[in-house]
Amino acid sequence: ESVAHPLLVDEVTLKARIRPRWALLLPNVPLVCQIAASCYRAIQGPDVLPWALLCSIWVSDMGLFHTGFFFMLPVPACIHLEKVGSVMLQGVVVIIWALWGCIMVANGATWQWSVFVLVAAIYIFTEFVPALRTDFWKAGPAHGQGMYTHTGNLIFELCLWSLYA
Questions:
Q1: ω into residue 46 within 30 of 0, thus cis?
Q2: pTM higher than 0.85 for the full model?
Q3: Is the four-CA dihedral 142, 146, 152, 154 of positive or negative sign?
Q4: Which of 40, 75, 90, 91 could bridge to 79 as Cys pair (CB 3.0-4.6 Å)?
Q5: Which residues of 34-60 are buried (b: 16+ CB within 10 A; e: fewer)?
Q6: Of all helices (H) and strands (E), which one includes residue 159?
Q7: Do 90 and 124 touch, CB atoms closer than 8 A?
Q8: Residues 105-128, buried b or exposed e (16+ Cβ, 10 A)?
Q9: 67/64 Cα distance (integer angstroms)
Q10: In the structure, how many helices (H) and strands (E) does the chain have?
């Protein structure tokens, strides 16, 4: 009888974690635009730090979650990366919302707050609530497969640019 090594991931689990190429392309178009837009805003200023942090979050989101790389990390079998990723995702969302709030407060936002509420609702109702209704622990791996969250984020971040006009 063979015993699985605690640091090795079995082939079935590994195949389940790797996303097909077509599933990577579409959701990543708005995310790539977010990376470019936040990088541009960080370079232009005046809110260099929050925009640079947003850019780094989007780059790590692309590199770790959207590619599925995070879920393929070689960790002991007792560490369920799906669960870790699902919890991390919620924390990062709160950080993103806080950064957006800092940008809006610092620049005297008005109508942008209503767009923020709309974008938060898009995330809540297209990713968070469905995860709670089905299996919360799959929220991390499922992130990056939908089209709504990053498209809404991109539109909102472009709305924030009106604060600099």
A1: yes
A2: no
A3: positive
A4: 75
A5: bbebbbebbeeeebeebbbbbbebbbe
A6: helix 148-160
A7: no
A8: eeeebeebeebbeebbebbeeebb
A9: 6
A10: 8, 0
